[in-house]
Design a protein that fits this description.
two-stranded antiparallel sheet, Tensin_PTEN_phosphatase, TNS2 protein, protein tyrosine phosphatase activity, C2_domain_sf, Tensin_C2-dom
């Protein structure tokens, strides 16, 4: 089923966690099992100098627990 999704990534620290980036996307826009997003499309990370300007995050989706090559 196509639906909007929100993903948040956190850095776990002693005593809590810190949000690193977040992203929202609609599964109906996916074309294949991979979604690659540049830094400027990631909430929080787009202005975080710890991320290089050419940084990307890649999501790999599958319908089961099998490993995806790459």
């Amino acid at each position: 089923t196509c639906a909007p999704r929100q993903v948040r990534c956190y850095h776990r620290r002693q005593g809590g966690r810190e949000a690193v980036f977040g992203v929202q996307f609609h599964t109906g826009t996916l074309r294949g099992p991979r979604l690659r997003l540049p830094r400027d499309e990631l909430d929080l990370a787009w202005q975080d100098q710890r991320f290089p300007p050419d940084a990307t995050v890649e999501f790999i989706f599958s319908s089961g627990p099998e490993r995806v090559e790459g």
